[in-house]
Every structure is written in C-alpha cells, then in structure tokens.
User: Fold this.
Amino acid sequence: MRIALAGNPNSGKTTMFNALTGSSEKVGNWAGVTVEKKESTVKKLYCKNGETITAVDLPGAYSMSPFTSEESVTRDYIKNETPDVIINIVDATNLSRSLFFTTQLLELGIPMVIALNKADLNKKKDTKIDVALLEKKMGCPVINTVSTSADGFSELITAVIDQIEKDQTPPYTENNVDLSDIEAVKAADRKRFEFVNAVVKEVETRKVYTRERNIHDKIDNVLTNKWVGIPFFALVMFLVFQISQVWVGTPIADLLGELLGLFQEWVGGLLEGANPLLYALLVDGIIGGLIAVMGFLPLVMVMYFLIALLEDCGYMARVAVVLDPIFKKVGLSGKSVIPFVITVGCAVPGVMASRTIKNERERRATAMLAPFMPCGAKIPVISLFAGIFFNNAGWVSTVTYLAGIVLIFLCALLINGITGNSAKKSYFIIEIPEYKKPSFKGAFKSMCGRGWEYIVKAATIILLCNTAVQIMQSFTWSFTVAENANESILATIAGPFAYVLLPVVGILSWQLAAAAITGFIAKENVVGTIAVCYGITKFINMDELVLEGGASDVAAIMGLTQAAALAYLMFNLFSPPCFAAIGAMRAEMKSAKWLWGGIALQLGVGFTVGFAVYQIGTLISAGTLGAGFLPGIIAVAVMAAIITVMCITATKRVKAERAHKKAK
Amino acid sequence: MNLTEVIEGKEYIIDKIDTEDDELDAFLFSLGCYSGEPITVVSRKKKMCTVSIKDGRYSIDSRLAAAITVTE
Assistant:
C-alpha cells in the first residue's frame, strides 16, 4: 500500500518521512525545503501486520486551491495518483492555519489520518488540544506525534493500516463551486476558514499567543539588526569555512591522505613485476586519480555537517530577511541567499532551493547565479592549487569565495540590464519559524549520507573518467602506445580547446584543457585529470608536498606561473558548473532561452575573470602583459559589445512598453 | 491606514489587500491573511516588518506591508 505525507510547509513531513523510512532526505527549519516528491519503504518495526508500506513525501502546501503554482506537485499527486491513505501532518502550534488544508484533503474521499505534530512544543507553551474532540469534528483519527523523536509513530501507522478502505465523512463540504470563477472560490474559501476557526475555538486552549513578543523576538532584534545582521552572517559563514577547511577538516584530511598513500604503495608493491603500461594505468592513473579526489573527503564532510546544523536551527529565514533589501537592489530576492548557502555544499540542491522564490525572474536569476558560489566538489580543486602554487596559503580559498559573492552581485546587475527589468518590483514574504536546537544526530546522518554520495561518485564517474583519461593519453589514434603524450588521443582532442585557454594561462596546454573539460562531468575531475596527466599523484598530500619541496617540482612540471595558476583556478570555478547542476538549472528555469543565456553568461564570466586575473597578475609580477593578450581582449570586447547591445535593446523595449501603458 | 503605520503589538482587522497580484493574494489567503481577519505587527524596521497572522509569524517587506490596509 501507498501512503502520502501531506501538510503545510515546515510542519515536519520530511523529518517524519526520514524517521519512518530510515532515509536521509534534506530537512531544514524553513518553509519549502522539500521541492520534489520522494518515495521509500516504511521500516518494518512500525508495520505491525507485516504489510509493505510505501511512504511518499510531498512538498508542503497551504491549500489545494488552483491559484498558487508552487503547490502543484502536491495537488497533482494527491488528485491523480490517489494514495491508499493520506497522513496529514498538522503543525499543532498553528492549528488555525493547518486545518484549512486538512478539510480540503478530507473532501477528496481518500482515507486519512491526522498526525498532530510538534506536540512537544505545545506542551512547553501549555497549549492544549482536545484530541478526542478534534477527531470527532474532523471525522478521522488524530494521533499526537513528535517527528524529531519519532514519538507516536507506531500508533500512527497502526491507525493508518486500520483506516484502509474505510469510509470517512468529510466534516465540511463545498457545494459545487465553479473553480474557474475566482470570486466564487474566494467566497467558498472564506466559509471554509469560518468553519475551521469555529473548530479551533472549541478544541484549543492557549495561554501563549503568537502575536505576543517572545524570546525569539529578542534574538531576532539583534540578529536582524541593520548593523549586526550582515556582519554576523559573514562571521557564521567564515566559521563554516574555517572549521571545515582549516581547524577540523585539514588534520583529518592529512591523516586520510597518508592512509591512501599507503594503500597506493601496497597496490604498487603487488604489481611490481607487471607490465609498466599496466602499472601506469592502474597505480598512477586510476588509483592515483581516485586518491587525489578522495583525500579531500573530510573537508567536504565537515562542511556538510556545519551547513546541516545551520539549516536546522531556523537562522536561514532570518538571513533572507536581513539580505532582502540588498538583494532587491540587484533584482534578486532575500530568499536567494538560501540557494547560495546550500550551493556551498552542492550546486544541485542549491539550484533546486531557488524554487521557493515566487517571482519568476528572481527565481531564474537565482538559479543562474547560485553556481558562482564554489561548491564542495570545487574544494579539492582550490586546495590543490593553493598547495602547489601558493604554499597552502589560506587567502586563496577566501578569495575564491569572496570573488563568487562579488560575481553574483555584478552578474545580477547584468541580468537586470539584459532583461530590462530594473524598474519592476516584487513583494517579499517569508515564514519565520521559531529557533530550535539543531539536531546533531540529523546533521551527522546528513553528513554521512552526502559523504557516501561523494565516495560513490569518486568510485564510479570519477574513476571512469580517470581511466578514460589515462587510456586516452597512453595511446595514439592507431591504438599504439604513445611514445610522446603529445601525440595521444587525449592531446589531439583537447588540443584545440587549449587555444581558448591561452589568454588565461599563457601557455598551450592540452592537459589543462582536458582537465577543464572533464570538470564539466564532475568538478573533482579537474583534480583527477591533472593528477593523471602530470603523474603527480604522489604529491597529493599537501602538507608533505610543501615540506618535501615537491610543490615547486609540480609547479615546474605544469609550467604555470602563480598568476596563471590562480587564473586557471578562477576559470574552473566560475565557468559553467557540472552537468548535474546544469540539469537542475534547466528544471528550475523552465526556459531554454534562460538556460542557454545562463550557460553563456557563466562561460563568459569564467573566461573574463581568468583572463583578467592572469593578465593583471602577470603585469604586476613580471611587468609585461601575458601571452594571448590580444585574442583575449578581442574576445572580451566582443562579449561586452553583445551585452551592451542587449542592454540597449532591453531599455528601448521597456521604454516603449511604458509609453504604451501611459497611452492606454 | 496600512501596516507601515500601525502600532507594534496591537491587533488590527484587515480591511483590504491590494497587491495587484492574484497569485500572491491567493497565497496570503491560504495563510489566513484576508479582509476581516486579525493581524498584528510584532516588530517593525525600516524596510521589513514581522507580522503575526493566525498562529504563524511572517516577515514582509514594507512594500507588501503598505499594500495591506487595516482598521482598529
């Protein structure tokens, strides 16, 4: 049988889903974390009669009414796929709002059980709900639950099983309302709310009212203060990076690096007498490339842990409030900050998080700009370059994140110009959840889940790419062993792209071009491919690298100056993200024009930033311009010209539209 | 008067909501924010204010606050 979890946003559906099924879907303390439906099997321990139950977690919805688009996933699922039983999760602290949706669900004729969730919060505030009376009024079972501690789950599932194929009489029915007539629907909805208000009055006794100021308001007064709000957010993010990439992540990564090195030596020992080609393929190529990527796992995992804590405590909604006035100035929404922060972990869920933004233009712009925040997969790339070329300097990482933020603002302005939208305004509304103590267990689970995904990715896609790269650079097109790697298959394929990178790195390097290309499959590949192509896998433990003086060797092998290395790094960070993230962009933008515009913008930005960093860096350090300046500046000029023309056209269009409106 | 002019912490009754955006109006309605219902501005800053509608808290920008007119 199939049960659907439906209810208002942030009522605890996904937390319940995770606890019921043992999944680790993303949870967070703000409205609209879940944007897509998820399915999984309920744990046997809750199913008393041994039946297999599939639970479906649905995005939160406030109503079934056909006038709000964001709730369509939930509405369509319940209406078209008819689950056997619906569990309606009701936020017990906000009964008066939640029951509106409840009465709508009850009208569908699908058996339903109400999970009166967050029962613990009500206890704290001494709010009492007469469950027996509510059951009678709603005509369906009501069970007290606490998602965060799985309280009441056995009773809930037992009630669900009891309810199968039972007839329930809806407590409130709307008589044939013409759904195409907005006014008629509104009138009917008013009546429904009247019914709900009357029910709440009878079943609920409150001592603390939501409209009264409480301790959360005192905290908010400080955290959303004009002067404190932004510096505090900056401090929080700085701590996330500092802890994950310096204080905690790095020592663990060093340890792991040593272990992985031992493993590589061990495999090398096994293959001592083997064919040198096989040795190179297996030990240096495949395992070496894999180790290069795996070594950074601790940094990424600690980061995931901290972001999960941040998402769970309720602070994200406040950040959106603090940043809205600034983001609004560049045509984004305060809510854009949530996708940006999530992208620091991974751009795919980051881009998807933009769905909670109602304004279409703001949502599309956010999905387009989020990938400028360097994601977890880019940490290995940043660390590798910082290690080889900059003596592990901490400023490299800081600069890349700050550059990401600056680019988001600049490109948001650019998008404004191109779409001619600067004059239009949008409204901002966000639900402010109460703060809660973040769940360390939940964050740990989330970290392990995401860490496992990283390992699986490294062992599949990245391993495959490394193998392909190793084979392609070992053979020529006639499938003979390439005596000189420059004649290999890889060199001839990546060669032409090396010309594009000339203005960025100053040399023609098919290896760097190949690394940038494989980076589109997964950004960790940049590290893997560089490791394979230059055979530098032994140096991947950065601390050793610096100690052994190996860094300068590697730098010499790659033939890059510091300016070129930084430029190449920037190019990889700010050019289009991996294909998975581009797929997410496509899903959120729902427009081919916006998607291709976004990819073009990212390509242009990646190239321009790389070009500028290399040329200016070279001018400062060597006193001359770098190689490839002329073709580079021409390319940048052409891009600038195209953008200027687009902006002018847009301005004209907006003016014409305004004149047209006035004339009307 | 609209929500940018009311006294903090005092409950008012919504008179009219005029956002010229049907989807937003429908969304506000589903939150319980429509004419005839009570609303309280819990705290107000220059560009943003926090309101209490039914038993939920929401932050809205001053543009939306100005679009909601209330009576005592």
About this structure: The beta strands of chain A are 2-7, 38-41, 54-57, 85-91, 112-117, 128-129, 142-144, 204-205, 429-431.
